[in-house]
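Q: Trace token order:
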Amino acid sequence: MPTLFYKGNTMAVGIFDSGLGGLTVLDAVHKRLPDVPLVYFGDNAHAPYGVRDADDIYALTIAATERMFAAGCDLVVLACNTAASAALRRMQENWVPQGKRVLGVMVPLIEALTERQWGDNSPPREVAVKHVALFATPATVASRAFQRELAFRAIGVDVEAQACGGVVDAIEEGDMILAEALVRSHVDALKRKMPRPEAAILGCTHYPLMAETFQEALGPDVSVYSQADLVAASLADYLTRRPEFIGDGQESMFLTTGDPVRVSSHATQFLRRKITFTAA
């Protein structure tokens, strides 16, 4: 991969999530681009987004993105599939200011699934995987954004979506026993609709924490795709090709609309390293 050249040897990238799930993306981006200051915004006061309507999600996502722009980010990644599904296209068409970019986390995953390079705009074609299970929040499932993006790139793929109610709440509360039980229940429900999926998409950035449970419940023959590493690789490639969106932010920060002490404690458990949030 080409070397990234940073403006003044530094830059800031914004990473947004309704809660803590986007920390899986932040961690992967930090490992891939260790010299990049990252501004993380968790809208914990309004989490989870998966049960909100599209207009509400849109307004909340814009408010968070504006805060990260103010912190020196010219590029913001919506590391929240619900926000990306419900708000991203509308933001890109109607709101994103000139000289700024807002990207989602869904496309890199679809590109990996369909084995297409970034920017491959050739017509949709047959791909090897024909039966795909999608696990996501109720709002992401309702948006059908995954199916829409997949249709741009592949034909003949059967997608069965399973809304995984309660999983994000359990992870945010640190109740991993409940989260594991819910994952197994949702996989069972999916299998009743699609007994033999070939691939499974973990369509929420909280779900990589439960990847082993998903894999065990689905069985060893199912390829499980999660987003963090794919998004980090795609982001590094994007910034190499589009250095004009390198921002002028000088420091990393963690912002939350929730209680900073409580969110910091959960985030530290989440990433297994000290994380300190401040009020947004």
